[in-house]
Specification:
Layout: H1 3-6, H2 10-43, H3 46-69, H4 78-96, H5 101-116, H6 120-123, H7 128-148, E1 158-159, E2 164-165, E3 168-169, H8 175-199, H9 201-211, H10 213-218, H11 223-249, E4 251-252, H12 259-272, H13 277-297, H14 302-316
Antiparallel strand pairs: 1-4, 2-3
Helix pairs in contact: 2-8, 3-8, 3-11, 3-12, 3-13, 4-5, 4-7, 4-11, 5-11, 8-9, 8-11, 9-11, 12-13, 13-14
């Protein structure tokens, strides 16, 4: 019989080694995926590069939703943090004269986190439909304020110019490609960070919260603390994605905070499933592709085509796209 079965002290030591090996494989796959996407982006047409840029930026927002879904709650107000991140980046560009794309993206994430953080302790008390409606209410309040404030462009929003990167002006012919590289780079890093967090003690505690909150409290864990952290992390992901989307679009508007926008991010989270981080970005890309081609070929009924596609996924892949390659309960 092996030492791992006869000596109890050997088991705890084996777990960190296995976790480290698993992360090493995940990091290698992420690096290979990044290299493949970066190389392919050089040859892609501009419309496809832009589509993948938006898919990666929106995938960051849905990644935050997945983190909350692992705890048993679904937010319908991620449009709020998307808009906060986008407006923060746009205002920093227009009012402060700060033009670095990387700095503006991080500014959007931090601004959304700071504004959303005070609501986290309150929201951590609620579950189910109450959590969903409270987050939706916050998003719609944000939408109403952005619509009424002429200082922020009112219902039309406002434009921002072309950003720089690390002090360098972006070339006219390759500005889209550079923004694409920046977006997929930040998305890859955030995906790896999310994988580490989901596999950590805190991340596994979130899964336990979804199963039985009473037992978590009995064993000494804090349910409210865990859900507060998850909401704050989701806000940072949403703000970062919003800033990247606005930098690529060159325009920010209140509709980013509207409830239908939040619904699209929930759509992606359900489509990808909560088991796999990579599946979230795959689902976001699938959504963008289906929406683009549906609106091109079925301009008046593209929502119907999108709805039918989601129904098919729910019917044949009830656990999401990630269930195609993830079999474990927490991967």
């Amino acid at each position: 019989m092996s030492a791992g079965l006869t000596d109890p002290s050997a088991a705890p030591a084996a777990r960190p080694v296995a976790a480290a090996g698993s992360f090493g494989r995940t990091a290698l796959l992420a690096l290979l995926a990044w290299v493949l996407l970066a190389t392919a982006g050089w040859w892609m047409p501009k419309w496809l590069t832009f589509l993948l840029t938006m898919a990666a930026a929106n995938g960051l927002v849905s990644l935050g939703i997945v983190g909350l879904m692992r705890g048993g709650v679904v937010p319908f107000g991620q449009g709020m943090v998307l808009a906060l991140g986008g407006y923060a980046a746009a205002l920093a560009y227009n009012k402060l004269g700060f033009t670095d794309a990387l700095g503006l993206a991080l500014c959007g994430g931090v601004a959304a986190t700071l504004i959303a953080a005070p609501f986290a302790p309150l929201l951590s008390r609620y579950r189910g439909i109450f959590f969903a409606m409270l987050t939706l209410a916050l998003s719609m309040v944000t939408y109403g304020l952005l619509m009424k404030l002429n200082l922020l462009g009112g219902s039309d929003g406002f434009n921002l110019g072309r950003p720089t990167l690390l002090g360098q002006k972006l070339p006219d012919a390759r500005v889209g490609f550079v923004m694409y590289l920046l977006t997929i780079t930040l998305a890859t890093l955030m995906a790896l960070a999310a994988r580490v967090y989901f596999d950590s003690t805190r991340g596994l505690l979130t899964l336990a919260v979804r199963e039985n909150e009473l037992r978590v409290e009995y064993l000494g864990g804090s349910v409210r603390h865990a859900m507060t952290i998850n909401f704050i992390l989701a806000a940072f992901c949403g703000g970062l994605g919003g800033a990247l989307a606005v930098l690529s679009l060159g325009h920010v508007e209140p509709n980013m905070a509207f409830w239908t926008t939040s619904g699209e991010f929930v759509f992606v989270a359900i489509l990808g499933g909560w088991q796999s981080v990579a599946a979230v970005f795959v689902a976001s890309t699938v959504l963008e592709v289906v929406r683009s081609f549906s609106s091109a070929y079925f301009p008046n009924t593209w929502q119907l085509a999108l709805g039918l596609f989601l129904l098919l996924v729910i019917r044949f892949l009830p656990k999401g796209i990630g269930s195609l390659w993830m079999r474990g309960p927490t991967r």
